[in-house]
Design brief:
Calcium-transporting ATPase, cytoplasmic transduction domain A; Rossmann fold; Calcium-transporting ATPase, transmembrane domain; eight-stranded mixed sheet; 4 domains; alpha+beta; 46% helix; eleven-stranded mixed sheet
Length: 906
């Protein structure tokens, strides 16, 4: 914080001792604040939030609707109309400008507000101690004086004076520009110390990269260091996706092509003797009609609607551009625990020298030679020893003291599910974390390290310290020199005994259990190395069953042409057991596994190594940095890779992946910030649902672009052909503008927000470079344009030569034919594999709403006096309507025949 204290709770807190800071804030480290104190401080200091970036005002959005070439062209047409004394048409064009602006305004408002509501769905939490209990709260509810519990991967949400730090490091690059993590401690610094020198402080907006600790909040919101940096506070939030850029580019190209074509049409009309003003006005109207100016707006709405659907399926998108990338995903690299499994850990088996104990329905059973007998845990010192160590070497916190909270024996609380399961097992023999730590206070912690796969805590006893250690079995066995015996003695841990325990580890892992090993020792000093000369206590097996919905989701991935690869820090056999259960491979004997210790760096792989590694379905015992090589391997093979992660060390992999997916429940805040997508439920099925929605969004956008362009091309062809053939224009300028507002916008919007093709996951992923409109689509657009234009010109011919209609009466028939042909054309946007009558278009309620609205507007244009006069439309009569209906249905019938031959939009 600056010297200017304002509402700051403590001035220059880095220069005060921890005790002085706590005293000045009137807070107890052990108890934290009371709810009454929290309420009072929130009134004084306000919410812990920075000033929000300025939102687009309503007036800005409205003004933007009139800042484009389309409106300029319409304005020119209006000026020409008034210049030629065509005042009715002039006012009509002004009305068109206003209506067009209103439609753009309301659709953009909807898109912007949808995006704003999406941003509110993902919030950062913090663990604080209040009234003596740890609780997780939204970060904005933090107040000065709150005691905050910190772990590696946490985003710092306020300025904090450290009370305790165990190997704590923080990434302060957002404030200092220094990319190397800074080591932290509880020591005070000089009053004039620079931010980078305040080692006893953590600052809002930074992240804990390693270790653990506790601290007291000394500043919140705008009173933090981050709050003082206005350039960070006022940063822009706008983001333009590659998809929107491509649509914008497509629109600009169409503008110049259209201007050229309409200029040619106008010239041809004038040369054949048509009225100059009529042809200029027609050319301008055609240009306006042909350019799909609503593309970016409709695309934004489609993206926002799709993201809202993803949010309802527990997938929050951090970056709008990720929606497009999701549809091209070819490989999903997924973690095992909590994603493929339930993440509801339960201790089911405990093994120590000479014995195996199983836990069922809160009872302990000794198993020997296939028989089991219930035992009293109070009579087993070995059992109590290993569970005491498991409870002490633990950072989780139970919300209650009972071990049988629910039907599955799962415990509710704050912390890693595995550690909660260990606390629950300890509670079954009367051990609580709080009770043990009262008798054996913790004095030091060696935080869990993903590289060493170990954790240790030091607890004060009578004159010395008890060191409790847990970690991966192979790592713990490596640092043990003794093994506990029944009489609590310590025999030498020979290589032969170590090998037997490694085989025991494999046996338990083959049953699908996650294994932890435990060890301990007594030391005289806190400075002694924790991972040396330990006594091995035994192993604990935790059951985490596969999620019921995962097998179906993985089968859907295979059907959709996507590979699912398990990337886990767990053991190969445990991973293989789950992989077989969820169907990652149909043949369990052919599951290819790469162990992390055998995984070479990408630059060191030979071609055969790359081929073998790329074909593996499981990567086990993988460290976070090895994920980068796995991603690189598949990206170099032209695959779009999605990668899951939950730890702070996963952040680089999440950024490198095409789609980084963070876990919302067990993931660190650093991982969630680095990811493109956050799973609120950590479920694999949510990834698949998001991929499906990504495909649907792209297909919806492709459909409405195809629909708009084919309708617009039909108008150009119809008017161009009539001008060339010296025939009456089938549609007049104002009528073109009317259709542009009616039959273009509303059906296109309906297509953009549809729920999509139910069979969309039956197709392989599209290529990353595939344009929205391919060459094949352009041919189809031209074909549909010719068919619709042909129907319109044919109806005009019949109206003049068969029905004897003239002037506006004949044009009314061709106008209505064009209008309804374009409305029916929306049904040609269905998938060729879908039914004729039941498909994604007929089931889209917005399509039916758009058709109903457009039909009413067309009838009003024909039958409402004054309106019909301006539009130059007359009632066509029963015979005229039969011609309109007959010819307008022709493009629909031909389109459905084309579907039989798989000639399609997709």
């Amino acid at each position: 914080m600056n010297d200017n204290t304002g509402n700051a709770a403590v001035n220059k807190p880095w220069s005060w001792s921890v005790e002085d800071v706590l005293d000045r804030l009137s807070v107890s480290r052990e108890k934290g604040l009371s709810e009454n104190e929290v309420s009072e401080r929130r009134k004084k200091f306000g919410k812990n939030a920075l000033r929000e970036a300025r939102k687009k005002s309503i007036w800005q959005i409205l003004l933007n609707q009139f800042k484009n070439l389309i409106i300029i062209l319409l304005a020119v047409a209006a000026v020409l109309s008034f210049a030629f004394s065509e005042n009715v048409e002039g006012f009509a064009i002004v009305a068109v400008i206003l209506i067009n602006g209103a439609i753009g305004f309301f659709t953009e408002i909807k898109a912007i507000r949808s995006m704003e509501s999406l941003r509110k769905l993902g919030s950062v939490d913090a663990v604080v101690r209040r009234d003596g209990e740890s609780q997780k709260i939204p970060a904005e509810e933090i107040v000065p004086g709150d005691i905050v519990v910190l772990e590696g991967g946490d985003i710092i949400t306020a300025d904090i004076r450290l009370i305790e730090a165990s190997k704590l490091q923080a990434d302060e690059s957002a404030l200092t520009g220094e990319s190397v993590p800074v080591s932290k401690n509880r020591e005070a610094a000089n009053e004039e110390a620079h931010i980078a020198e305040r080692t006893g402080m953590l600052f809002k907006g930074t992240a804990v990269t390693r270790g653990s600790g506790e601290g007291v909040v000394v500043a919140t919101g705008m009173n933090t260091e981050l709050g003082q940096i206005s350039s960070l506070v006022e940063k822009a939030e706008d983001e333009t996706t590659p998809l929107e850029k491509r649509l914008d580019s497509l629109g600009h190209k169409l503008i110049w092509v259209t201007l050229f074509l309409t200029a040619v049409i106008a010239t041809l009309g004038i040369l054949r003797g048509a009225e100059v003003f009529l042809m200029i006005e027609t050319a301008i109207a055609l240009a306006v009609a042909a350019i799909p100016e609503g593309l970016p707006i409709v695309a934004t709405i489609a993206l926002a609607r799709g993201m809202m659907r993803m949010a309802k399926r527990n997938a929050l998108i951090n970056r709008l551009s990720s929606v497009e990338t999701l549809g091209t995903t070819k490989i999903i690299c997924t973690d095992k625990t909590g994603t493929l499994t339930e993440n509801r850990m339960t201790v089911t088996e405990i093994r120590f020298p000479g014995k195996s104990i199983f836990i069922e329905n809160n009872a302990f059973y000794l198993k020997r030679d296939g028989d089991k007998a219930e035992i009293d845990p109070d009579n087993s010192e070995e059992l109590k020893s290993i569970l005491k160590t498991a409870v002490l070497c633990n950072n989780a916190s139970l919300k209650n003291k009972e071990a049988n909270d629910d039907d599955n024996g799962n415990e509710s609380g704050i912390g890693d599910p595995m550690e909660l399961a260990l606390l629950a097992a300890g509670a079954k023999v009367g051990f609580s974390r709080e009770g043990l730590r009262d008798k054996m206070p913790e004095r030091r912690e060696e935080a869990f390290d993903s590289e060493s796969k170990k954790m240790a805590t030091y607890h004060q006893t009578d004159g010395n310290y008890f060191v409790a250690v847990k970690g991966a079995p192979e790592e713990i066995l490596e640092v043990c020199s003794k093994i506990r015996t029944e009489n609590d003695g310590g025999d030498e841990l020979t290589d032969e005994i170590r090998d037997r325990w490694l085989k025991t580890n494999e046996e338990m892992a083959a049953d699908g259990l996650r294994i932890l090993a435990f060890a301990s020792k007594q030391v005289d000093s806190l400075d002694e190395e924790p991972y040396r000369d330990l006594t091995f206590l035994g192993m604990v097996g935790l059951l985490d069953p596969a999620r019921e919905d995962v097998a179906e989701s993985i089968a859907l991935c295979h059907k959709a042409g996507m590979r699912v690869i398990m990337v886990t820090g767990d053991q190969p056999l445990t991973a293989k057991n789950i992989a077989a259960a969820v169907g990652i491979s149909n043949d369990e004997d052919k599951i290819e596994i790469v162990n992390g210790r055998d995984l070479k760096k990408y630059d060191e792989m030979s071609d055969s190594d790359k081929e073998q590694t790329a074909s593996a379905q499981i990567f086990a015992r993988v460290s976070p940095h090895q994920k980068l090589d796995i991603i690189t391997l598949h990206q170099k093979r032209d695959a779009v890779v999605a990668m899951t992660g939950d730890g702070v060390n996963d952040a680089p992999a999440l950024k490198k992946a095409d789609i980084g997916i963070a876990m919302g429940l067990r993931g660190t805040q650093v991982a969630r910030e680095a990811a493109d997508m956050v799973l609120k439920d950590d479920a694999f099925s949510s990834i698949v649902a998001a991929v499906r929605q990504g495909r649907i969004i792209f297909n919806n956008i492709r459909k409405f672009v195809f629909y708009l362009l084919s309708c617009n091309v039909s108008e150009i062809i119809a008017v161009g052909a009539a001008s060339t053939a010296d025939a009456p224009l089938p549609i007049l300028p104002l009528q073109i503008l009317f259709l542009n507002l009616v039959t273009d916008v509303f059906p296109a919007l309906a297509l953009g927000v549809g729920e999509g093709d139910k069979d969309i996951m039956n197709y392989p992923p599209r290529g990353t470079g595939e344009p929205i409109i391919t060459r094949g689509h352009w041919l189809l657009i031209g074909g549909y344009g010719i068919i619709i234009a042909g129907s319109v010109l044919a109806s005009l011919y019949v109206a003049i030569n068969k029905l004897g209609l003239e002037g506006h009466d004949a044009i009314t028939v061709s106008f209505l034919t064009l209008a309804f042909a374009q409305l029916w054309h929306v049904f040609n946007m269905r998938s060729p594999d879908a039914g004729v009558f039941v498909n994604e278009i007929t089931k889209n309620k917005y399509v039916w709403g758009a058709l109903a609205l457009c039909t009413v507007l067309l009838l009003l244009a024909v039958y409402v006096p004054g309106f019909s006069h301006v539009m130059k439309l007359n009632s066509p009569g029963a015979v005229g309507w039969s011609v309109v209906l007959g010819f307008s249905l022709i493009p629909l019938f031909i389109g459905q025949i084309m579907k039989l031959f798989k000639i399609d939009v997709h």
